[in-house]
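All the exercises in this workshop are built on plain-text protein records. Sequence and backbone structure share a record, each on its own labelled line. The question running through the whole workshop is how a given chain folds. The record below serves as our worked example for the rest of this section.
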Amino acid sequence: MVDTPLRAVPGFELRGREPELRAVLDLVDQAPATGLVVVRVGGEPGIGKTSLLAEIARRLRERHCGVLTSASDVLGKRIPYGAVVAAIRSAAVPPPLDKIRSDALAALEISVAEDSGAWFGRACDRVVRLLTELTATRPAALLIDDLDHVDDDSLALLSLVLRRVSAAPLVLITASRSAAGESLLDRVEQHAEVMRLDLAPLSGADVARIVESVLQTPVDEGLAREVQQRSDGNPFFVTEIARSLRELDLVTVDGNRARLAVSPDAIRLTRREAVLRRVAPLENDTRLVARAVAVFRRVRLDQISLLARVASLPESTVVAAFDELLRAQIVVHDDDRGYRFSHALVGEALYHEVGPAQRRHLHSLISARLLDDRAQGLPVDLLQLAWHLAESAAPGDRVAVSVLAEAAALARSSAPETAAALCGRALRLLPRNAPERSELLALQCRVLARASRPALAIEPGLAALESLAGGPERARVATAVISSLFTVGRTAEAMELADVEVARGSVPASLEAQRAVLLVYNNRHDDAVSEVARIEALPISSPAEGVIVFEHLAMLTSLLFQHDRTVEYANRALACSDGQPMLELQALSVCASITALAGLVHDASWRVRRAEELVDQVGSHGFRAERAASRVALDWLGGHWDAALDGIGRWTADVEAAQADQALGVLQAIELSIRTWRGELDVAARLAALPAPQSVNISKLYAAALAEYLVARGEVDEAYALLSGAVGTRLEAAYSCVLVARMIELDLERGRQDVALEALDRLTSVSSTRVSPWSRTTIRRVTGVVRQDVELLREAVSEAALGGLEFEKARAQLALGEVSADEVPVLVEAYTSFQRLGAHGLRRQAGNRLRTLGAKVPRARSKAPGLLTEAEENVARLVQQGMRNRDIAAALHYSPRTIEVYLSRIYAKLHVSSRLELARVLDAMQQR
């Protein structure tokens, strides 16, 4: 069983919602200019949310828009990816897209054997491709009813997919009763235009029209007012109360107009009673069957015999009763997915009418039958069985615990959110001292870690470690907990746990290597240095462990500035992969991020290229955060700043979804650096206001970018203090050469020559240990500036060029041109580089020096010559980088309306119709 496509309530006509309908349709019209739009329709049950969504879907189909719909219920919340599957199945796609839809549905089939990262990534990619194709030539809409009941795995997938298609003309329209589904909206809000529509009670005139449609005659004011008061203007209850008044003969027609036949005080009819009256006229057997259906939530015809057992009735009686429910439109056919209640309120009223003890008994009957079928070898939906057991099992029921644990194990790779919830239900059935608890807690910890929920993985993992004996399972859980603690910034606790596990003895080499990296993060550098050789000599039990050990050693030596050994260990990690594609992707991706952030551009570049060749084979979500950080860092260091910003816009969603805080800190630091050098200080201010990265090494990279921002704002003293605090007493901190070099430049600018020379001596004392091109370029450039040494500056230019560090090369060229009057060609090249990068402050500095030397300053060139004005180019570039209209308006000091006007001009000039097309055209222009 799966979730269903959206259906209007049978016989229910949309009334009084024309303003809301127009508002949503207007947003769809604006989607080509705004990109992703999210509409959240809220309100109490029966207020008309489902009917509004159904009417929106109908109108959009009339406009030939792509429409995907899905509606969930209580049972649907227990079906992994059910909401997404239902939405994809509902789409009417042209024949060329049918294969793409089939691929997306196939990718969402739960896999038991495949790694969750690879599986989830492939599923995301297929759904992204389908949505991208659907919106290629026209807007499309994804409508999700009852967002409160959408399964957690669908929410996780949608939150990532929607952010990846945020430039497409797509409208997400959701309906929910409560804030339960708000997590999805919260995750995509910064990437979308968001509208919240809370449906209010209907007016008296609209209530009167609904009553007239039920009674098939005009009504007087008193009758309409009485119905409005009893229904509180809720259209579903208006209909049910009007129907009940008619069936109870409480309405009479007088002068061609209906009115109450009795005094209002004589009527005992509440909203709940009106709903239950829908089933009150039914025969007792039919009502019993309706109650049983309420426990199932959705029934197939091949389950009639099971339904008969639950209702304690003969099968022939159940068949007749079921047909009666269909004729009364209490139950409706739901295509090939069985039968459901015509409105969720009817099912809920019947379900709660049963009573908690009887409900539990009925769930128990269903689960017992399913267990019998399973014992006889008949096919049984394990997740459905698990749900009924969870609703009926008593504490201590070992059979229920076993099934829930089995269902969790089934779902752990492809649906980790569901698996974690199943573990939680099983744990609630077990006493505190039950021996099975440790195994369940261990599984819950590991699936939460797989689901990128490190904060939630810690507690069950620590609880499992209290009773798990030594061995492989304990080591796996300890590793998961240590990694989770590290990810959420609790490095001291991670270090403490690693020390405890190592002291217990017999831990794998991978945990020893993990602990060694933590030593650096806890400022125990000398201890870390002494650990390298010991860990390298430890026995490796498997290719997977070899990859992990040498990855950690590569990271450790990078943090210790032993970059020649970093490359060696990265190569050994790759060699340990033993030709296994997933392990090879892991070794390449993780080590690429390590060497890229060390400034080893050429080494990181080939690793990223080779990793991307493996992506289609093993799933692109595997280690996507590491590859994203690598690619962005390489574009930044290599002088492809537009590509870096584009990558940040495209990959931030993936990195956030993985809760990869270190990679997220890299993206944050690099964007802050680029925005600052480009003079986009309003955008930079928004970035600078975000919490600083907590990772020991990335926090230093961020400090360098933040200090540059403070300098640009004129807050030089604050920038200097920030740099000084980040350096460390022995220059042992990551990026210490970059930090000290900037302090020296600020000292020179403020006339503090003695302080600059003292700092330069500190830098020179460690220069022999810094072998990366980035460090060597920085040391030579700042030393050349202090000593006015032309040869050192030429060496800095050469070092940067050989290392692929385009921005650092241009900075060294500018420094050389300012020291020597004979380097005009070098200055011209620096000017051109700064112009291409958009670093206009440095470009003007190079231009002023050229004018002083009497040389010709190169003429600035437009990216879209003869097409866009400078103001239009600025707007277009920020759209290309994934910024929303409101953020562009804030950055450029325009109103959002002005940005819309600029976009309409840009679209007309470049012959495009959406943000996605605009980005593609600009990409093509930059590649010419």
